[in-house]
Amino acid sequence: MFDTFLPPAAGEExxxxxxxxxxxxxxxxxxxxxHEDHVYGNQAFExxxxxxxxxxxxxxxxxxxxxxxxxxxxxxxxxxxxKELLAAELLSQTKAAQSV
Length: 100
Known about the structure:
It contains three helices and two strands, in the order H-E-H-E-H. The chain has one domain (8-98). It has helices at 8-22, 36-39, 54-98, and strands at 28-30, 49-51.
């Protein structure tokens, strides 16, 4: 297998298609470079051997070890905003149901 797409679900679809086509399990995954759209599907290939360069590995971890904290902060903010929207919607629906 060469590159595994983005998101992980696409990697799973790719794996299933390759295994159905060849009637064999995917044994090897080669990643061309560390960009998300080339490696995030790797999660679907947990039994495979991964092949890549040192530059690929170092580039991936440099980029993503920094972004993980930033992404977590952003995701937490997003979840909090969704919580507020849902609470407001629930309150609105409750008031509407009580007035019927």
